[in-house]
Design goal:
Blueprint (H helix, E strand, L loop, with lengths): L1 E6 L3 H10 L5 E7 L3 H9 L6 E2 L2 H5 L6 E4 L6 H10 L3 E5 L6 H13 L4 E4 L6 H9 L6 E9 L5 H5 L19 H13 L4 E8 L5 E10 L2 E8 L8 E5 L2 E6 L6 E5 L3 E3 L9 H14 L4 H21 L9
Helix pairs in contact: 1-9, 4-5, 5-10, 8-10
């Protein structure tokens, strides 16, 4: 078993831990929080006694081989770098860092220290993503894709009431393209690679982050239109169009349903684990066991970050972390 620690004590951390309980080689060994009482309260849920409120101490703990990071976006880089430089394998929540240069530095640190770094993007590991990849050739020559993810944030009313919750705060490297929009960009990059041209526009909130936006990514012979939003809601499915058919995709982050439409209509949807984070956890553990970073996953993470960094430049979304 691979003993791992968590940084962050929120719902997504709990989801990841539950995912490791599904046919996995990862075992929770320690919990970190800035507040030791919070760490102990969270650790008690899983009968874990080893708790930290000191990142340096965690990075040097011999009982921990790997670390799962689910802190605010702006903290990912410094926390991941500390762990990598101290020989810990790292799986870090998306986005891996605030901008592309930080992502490059993290992967170089992983290579230099002979450890694994993996951006926790579960969608590319789902059975239904593999269905899309295996069946997309039936569409013939690709021409267009429309990728949608618009979800009204539960924290938006707080923003409207005068607060600046983390999700709408540039201090935490947040906003729509770094959250909801990430899934759209990462899905596109995982399927088609890095685009040849990027165009983007956004609605910028008073706090300085984007509340929603639109992106046009151009490839050889086809284009991808992306709509993302944290301040509006949509039930629209995503679609990939070719000259001989189209793919309809419900839920671009979870891939609930995949339908192929050609001369007939075929449901391609496969059963998926309820704890979907089990797929990324297994993929991370397999890289540790093999002792090598997966090249495709590394390229996806770098390309996704490069595209998002350019989108922020085009739309004027700037973070304090950009100066670091």
């Amino acid at each position: 078993m691979i003993n791992f620690a968590t940084i962050g004590t929120n719902w997504i951390t709990e989801s990841f831990i539950n995912g490791t309980l599904v046919n996995n080689d990862l075992k929770l060994a320690a919990v970190y929080s800035r507040n030791l009482d919070n760490a102990k309260t969270f650790a008690d849920k899983f009968a874990i006694n080893l708790c930290f409120d000191d990142l340096e101490a965690l990075s040097k703990c011999d009982e921990v081989e790997a670390v799962y990071i689910a802190s605010p976006n702006s903290l990912h880089f410094e926390q991941a770098l500390l762990m990598l430089e101290n020989g810990k394998h790292v799986i870090c929540e998306k986005p891996l860092a605030s901008h592309f240069q930080q992502v490059e530095k993290l992967y170089q640190a992983a290579i230099d220290n002979n450890v694994i770094l993996y951006e926790a993007y579960k969608t590319a590991q789902l059975p239904n993503f593999k269905q899309i990849k295996e069946n997309i050739s039936e569409l013939g020559k690709l021409r267009k894709a429309h990728i949608h993810y618009c979800q009204y944030s539960s924290r938006y009313q707080r923003y409207l009431d005068g607060e600046i919750p983390n999700t709408f705060n540039p201090e935490f490297s947040n906003g729509s393209i770094m959250d909801i929009g990430y899934y759209c960009i990462a899905f596109t990059v995982a399927l088609f690679g890095k685009p040849k041209r990027i165009q983007a526009d956004a609605i910028i909130l008073g706090s300085g982050v984007d509340g929603c936006g639109a992106v046009l990514l151009t490839y050889d012979g086809f284009s991808v239109t992306i709509d993302h939003s944290k301040i509006s809601r949509s039930e629209q499915v995503s679609e990939i169009q070719g000259e001989e058919g189209n793919l309809l995709i419900k839920g671009i982050s979870v891939l609930d349903d995949v339908t192929l439409v050609t001369d007939s209509i075929r449901d391609l949807t496969l059963p998926q684990e309820q704890d979907q984070m089990s797929y990324e956890a297994s993929f991370f553990a397999e890289q540790i066991k093999q002792g090598v970073i997966n090249d495709e996953a590394m390229l996806q993470a770098k390309n996704t970050s490069e595209v998002i960094t350019e989108i922020r430049r085009l739309t004027g979304v700037n973070f304090p972390a950009d100066d670091i």
